[in-house]
């Protein structure tokens, strides 16, 4: 029979290899699923992973990978800093919404006035909005010891109500015939977060995501603060003896992740989405949690994980349309990815042992 | 360097794509973008029935593709672009929130025809279409007003947009006409499809004494909640929801997109497609009233059917004056009927309804 035995030390090479194993296992299990649905598994997997990158219309899908991946990476980087320190911000979706409302709010307040200062003001408003929304669970935790998982999650629903109210009230397009939704910022040059180079998908949000990756990498591996964050997560008591102030780390990690989520929302509303609508948020804040873990809470890993996740979304939609795969099958496929990753992660700290006979 | 490679690749591929569009492919390809799952039993289900009817009608001459659960915003824009790149000739985008994305994509593909449901932005290659669901609401209101014993009618509203407000007003006016004591309790669910939320809303309304529940959301959850309560009347929404007949579901409004989808596909095949704004109802069959079951007294059923027939012949308009607005100001004079412009942008309750439209 098989038994698990703790490794004396976590396996380094498996740390790098398990994400690849997980992707491979997902392809195999997903292929079986697609076959059970009566679709050609090889064609389905190829459509999801190959078509967006190297297919006939890759020139369109590759930029879309950036558009879809950037908010995921931006949010996941912030979350990972907190997760490293054992601070669980589950409410990035709410911070993303508030960032978008604040960013769009600043732009619409100035409409139709044109100025080069509007976009920077929107960036600041977006970051501050997300930061402020994350400060609610942070301060409650520091002051009253509340659970940040619950508070940040609940605030997502509050943010969604606020979003609906904005789309129907304060930010509603006055020329929209009574329909909900704000003016489209894509038609407001000073506020439009356009591609920096046309048709590449490379907008300011993508640039911000790359900067965030580098910043987080340097912070975690080269900076004292990064060391404190890691230490707080790995050994809270040791961290305290080393003079780390836990409440400082809590405020810092939640604030940073909130600000990054707010930025992601602001770049999205100013660019690809263009509008504050009731259904503006599509779950980036939650998917980013998966991305953060898929990337092993490592900034470089998160960059690749975000792009991989974006790939499964884009490829999944192509597979739906070209092969008639149901959306639910694609979602199961994406779920498998996280499932296998967590399952294989066990092998980093444990190894499998064949044992003879039953243990007494 | 990466960007340059992508740019060069895109230039090359654009050339290819252009060539692919120019050669007339044998089959007419029709794409459908859905906001919910095809199995929602309501809004998206009926659009998908329309798609299947197109396949049925033209057989091998058409190929249909669809993507379900497409979020409004950039995701929908990508899915539409993908369909256009894959050679779709006609694309139906079936949710209000697809409006700006549809216009954006249509600009990039002038040779592809687009049909956007329930919106108001058109272009040379973008039509809009919607159904006069309020005609069905009038029939529901009549039956509801007659059936209620508590005189409290619950209404699960989705979003405070003109279409939903029209429905509430139409139902209320016709309930009030047959039952002056009737009162409407309205819950705004802020969703089109969320079985859990819809069930909670239905339960809350029933607890407040409603013995008729109307819904403008797409799932069958309110039907199940009414069935559990035992003595509550419901109506199918968007789809027949016949699995809950004969009771609690006593009738339904069915969105029947099939004739329109077939006609528009035919127009693309014949090369006669033009950008139009279509707003059809009971007369053309775009809105259908599902079977009125025997749970409804025979005389009420006969009155309801007579109203349907009058609307079919164009003899009766559900918004015929005198009608005042909620604040008591006059809207329609005696015998005056509402203009389509007034209806399209309706953002007020009629007199007698209580509460405010959220904003």
UniProtKB/TrEMBL annotation, chain A:
It is found in: Cell membrane. Keywords: Cell membrane, Membrane, Transmembrane, Transmembrane helix. Its main location: membrane. CDD domains: TM_PBP1_transp_TpRbsC_like. The keyword Cell membrane applies. InterPro entries: ABC_transp_permease (IPR001851). GO terms for molecular function: transmembrane transporter activity. It comes from the Bacteria. The keyword Nucleotide-binding does not apply. It is a multi-pass membrane protein. One of its GO terms (cellular component) is plasma membrane. The chain crosses the membrane at residues 13-35, 67-87, 94-111, 117-140, 149-171, 202-220, 249-270, 276-294, 301-319, 325-348. This is Sugar ABC transporter permease. It comes from Pseudaestuariivita atlantica.
Automatic annotation (TrEMBL), chain B:
It holds the Pfam family Bmp. Residues 1-22 form the signal peptide. It comes from the Bacteria. One of its GO terms (cellular component) is plasma membrane. InterPro entries: ABC-Purine-Binding (IPR052910), PnrA-like (IPR003760). Residues 27-302 form the ABC transporter substrate-binding protein PnrA-like domain. Keywords: Signal. This is ABC transporter substrate-binding protein.
């Amino acid at each position: 029979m098989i038994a698990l035995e703790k490794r004396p030390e976590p396996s380094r090479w498996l740390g790098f290899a398990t994400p690849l194993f997980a992707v491979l296992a997902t392809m195999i299990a997903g292929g079986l699923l697609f076959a059970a649905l009566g679709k050609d598994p090889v064609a389905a997997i190829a459509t999801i992973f190959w078509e967006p990158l190297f297919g006939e219309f890759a020139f369109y899908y590759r930029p879309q990978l950036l558009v879809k991946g950037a908010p995921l990476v931006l949010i996941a980087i912030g979350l990972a800093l907190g997760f490293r320190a054992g601070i669980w911000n589950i409410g990035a979706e709410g911070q993303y919404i508030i960032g978008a409302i604040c960013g769009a709010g600043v732009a619409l307040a100035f409409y139709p006035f044109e100025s080069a200062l509007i976009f920077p003001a929107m960036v600041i408003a977006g970051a501050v909005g997300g930061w402020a929304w994350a400060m609610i669970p942070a301060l409650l935790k520091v002051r009253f010891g509340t659970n940040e998982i619950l508070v940040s999650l609940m605030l997502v629903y509050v943010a969604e109500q606020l979003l609906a109210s904005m789309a129907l009230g304060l930010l509603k397009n006055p020329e929209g015939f009574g329909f909900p939704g704000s003016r489209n910022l894509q038609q407001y040059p000073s506020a439009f977060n356009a591609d920096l180079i046309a048709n590449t998908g490379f907008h300011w949000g993508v640039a911000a995501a790359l900067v965030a990756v580098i910043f987080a990498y340097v912070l975690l591996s080269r900076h004292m603060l990064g060391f404190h964050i890691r230490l707080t997560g790995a050994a809270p008591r040791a961290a305290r003896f080393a003079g780390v102030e836990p409440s400082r780390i809590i405020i810092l990690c939640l604030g940073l992740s909130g600000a990054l989520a707010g930025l992601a929302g602001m770049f999205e509303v100013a660019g690809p989405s263009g509008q504050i609508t009731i259904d503006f948020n599509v779950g980036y804040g939650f998917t980013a949690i998966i991305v953060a873990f898929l990337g092993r809470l490592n900034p470089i890993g998160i960059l690749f994980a975000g792009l991989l996740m974006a790939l499964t979304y884009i490829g999944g939609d192509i597979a739906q349309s070209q092969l008639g795969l149901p959306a639910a099958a694609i979602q199961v496929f994406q779920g498998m990815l996280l499932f296998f990753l967590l399952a294989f992660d066990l092998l980093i700290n444990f190894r499998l042992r064949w044992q003879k006979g039953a243990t007494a | 360097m990466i960007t340059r490679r992508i740019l060069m690749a895109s230039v090359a591929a654009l050339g290819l794509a252009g060539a692919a569009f120019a050669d007339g492919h044998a089959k007419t390809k029709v794409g459908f973008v859905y906001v919910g799952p095809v199995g929602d039993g309501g809004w998206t289900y009926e659009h998908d029935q329309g798609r299947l009817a197109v396949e049925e009608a033209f057989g091998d001459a058409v190929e249909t593709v669809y993507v379900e659960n497409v979020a409004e915003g950039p995701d929908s824009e990508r899915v539409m672009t993908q369909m256009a790149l894959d050679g779709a000739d006609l694309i139906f985008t079936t949710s209000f929130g697809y409006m700006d994305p549809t216009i954006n994509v249509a600009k990039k593909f002038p040779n592809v025809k687009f049909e956007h449901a329930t919106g108001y932005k058109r272009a040379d290659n973008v039509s809009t279409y919607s159904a006069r669901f309020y005609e069905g609401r009038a029939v529901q209101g009549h039956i509801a007003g007659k059936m209620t014993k508590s005189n409290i009618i619950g209404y699960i509203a989705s979003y405070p947009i003109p279409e939903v407000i029209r429905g509430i007003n139409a139902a209320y006016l016709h309930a009030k006409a047959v039952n002056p004591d009737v009162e409407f309790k309205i819950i705004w669910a802020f969703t089109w499809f969320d079985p859990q939320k819809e069930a909670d809303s239905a339960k809350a309304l029933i607890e407040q004494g409603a013995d008729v529940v109307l819904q403008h959301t797409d799932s069958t959850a309110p039907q199940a909640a009414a069935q559990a309560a035992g003595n509550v009347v419901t109506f199918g929404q968007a789809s027949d929801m016949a699995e809950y007949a004969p009771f609690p579901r006593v009738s339904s409004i069915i969105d029947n997109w099939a004739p329109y989808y077939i006609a528009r596909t035919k127009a693309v095949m014949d090369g006669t497609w033009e950008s139009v704004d279509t707003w059809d109802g009971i007369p053309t069959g775009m809105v259908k009233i599902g079977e009125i079951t025997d749970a409804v007294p025979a005389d009420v059923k006969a009155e309801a059917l007579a109203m349907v027939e009058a609307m079919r012949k164009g003899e009766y308009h559900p918004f015929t004056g005198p009608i005042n607005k909620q604040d008591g100001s006059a809207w329609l004079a005696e015998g005056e009927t509402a203009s389509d412009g007034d209806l399209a942008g309706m953002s007020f309750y009629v007199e007698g309804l209580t509460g405010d439209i959220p904003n």
